[in-house]
Specification:
Keywords: Immunoglobulin domain, Membrane, Signal, Transmembrane, Transmembrane helix. Its main location: membrane. There is one protein chain. About 25% of the residues lie in helices and about 35% in strands. By secondary structure, it is an alpha+beta fold. The strands form four sheets. Strands 1-2-10-9-4-5-6 form a seven-stranded mixed beta sheet, with no helix packed on it. A four-stranded antiparallel beta sheet has the order 11-12-15-14, with no helix packed on it. The longest helix has about 50 residues. The chain binds 2-acetamido-2-deoxy-beta-D-glucopyranose (4 copies). One 2-acetamido-2-deoxy-beta-D-glucopyranose binds next to loops. The site of one 2-acetamido-2-deoxy-beta-D-glucopyranose (NAG) has 3 residues, from loops.
Length: about 290
């Protein structure tokens, strides 16, 4: 039997496709407290607005601690001659020109790196009293885990899940009812500020199993599903045998009845014949 398997390779080899899928499915999230959580390598929008006041002829500055992230002042900005932008952000930050008239001072940072994580401030220097807003950026949200079958026999399958994200990452396997499955000890490695977790479990039933990656301190949870078909104990041979036996017995019964009837009829015929002969004999023997 052929079992559908999802492989990891497409996730690992085509990060751009993954990025697109993720930005389309909206992994980026800004919670009410102003925290934006994204995967490493994705593009992120940091929100800021000045309550609908047209900003085309105003100015705003984005900073991260002492670093200048992006500045705008009456048509001049960091990508158009305005100096002072930190090296880390050069060529990676843009504003939304068409949104300025609606008071929207949001910026987009491309290809987010772990170093981009931190607290950002959006400031309108021309506005009195000073208006500022803060956004916390967390880079390192776990992307969809990679799940696959690494071993399968007729009675069991060994499933593997690979996930990565900032170090509070927790990974577990569950069945379609949400029951957590016992798993082997996870293999954890840390690299470039991210932890990489591989978790294997053994399943013995047909079901859709999910690997769930959770990052509690950034309120992030993401999962991948895999459909596993385990061949149930093979009953078809028995069923066929039983059906054959029933048919055979039924056939035997029918044949038996027919034969019995024939024999009975034959016996009756013989008896009549015999009786007739006896009568004739006794007639003839009569004096
Ligand atoms: C500002 O513009 C960005 C990019 O178009 C958009 O995602 C965001 O929702 C806008 N914010 C507001 C408050 O309109
Ligand atoms: C994103 O940044 C990383 C590290 O800075 C770099 O290796 C990679 O090539 C960049 N990707 C894109 C699409 O620019
Ligand atoms: C979440 O917790 C881990 C481990 O406690 C820590 O390394 C990480 O920086 C935390 N992330 C945030 C955004 O607080
Ligand atoms: C597994 O998921 C598929 C759709 O992906 C669904 O058709 C099927 O009924 C599910 N099976 C179980 C056992 O939940």
């Amino acid at each position: 039997m052929v079992h559908p398997q999802r492989t990891c390779s497409h996730m690992e080899l085509l990060p751009l496709v993954c990025l697109c899928l993720l930005s389309c499915s909206g992994t980026t999230s800004a919670d009410p407290a102003g925290t934006v959580v994204v995967e490493k390598g994705s593009d992120v929008i940091l929100p800021c607005s000045n309550n609908g006041v047209n900003l085309e002829t105003e100015s705003f500055d984005w900073t991260k601690g002492q670093m200048k992230v992006f500045s705008y002042a009456v048509g001049q900005h960091s990508n158009k001659g305005k100096t002072g932008q930190a090296e880390q952000f050069r060529g990676r930050v843009s504003h939304f020109e068409e949104e300025l008239k609606h008071g929207n001072a949001s910026i987009k940072i491309t290809n987010a790196t772990m170093a981009d994580s931190g607290d950002y401030t959006c400031d309108f220097p021309g506005v009195h009293p000073a208006r500022k807003s803060d956004v916390k950026l967390v880079v390192g949200a776990a992307p969809e885990p990679c799940v696959k079958t690494v071993f399968q026999t007729e009675t069991l399958a060994v499933l593997q899940c690979k996930a990565h994200g900032v170090p509070d990452l927790e990974v577990h396997w569950q069945d379609s009812d949400g029951n957590k499955l016992p798993a082997e000890e996870p293999q954890v490695t840390e690299r470039g500020g991210l932890s990489y977790i591989t978790l294997k479990t053994t399943v013995t039933k047909t079901d859709n199993f999910s690997c769930v990656a959770t990052q509690k301190n950034i309120s992030h949870r993401i999962s991948s599903e895999i459909n596993i078909k385990i061949d149930e104990p093979d009953n078809t041979g028995w069923i066929v045998a039983v059906v054959f036996i029933i048919l055979f017995v039924a056939y035997g019964a029918v044949v038996g009845v027919v034969l019995y009837k024939r024999i009975q009829k034959h016996k009756r015929d013989m008896k009549q014949l015999k009786d007739g002969a006896t009568e004739k004999l006794s007639d003839g023997a009569r004096p």
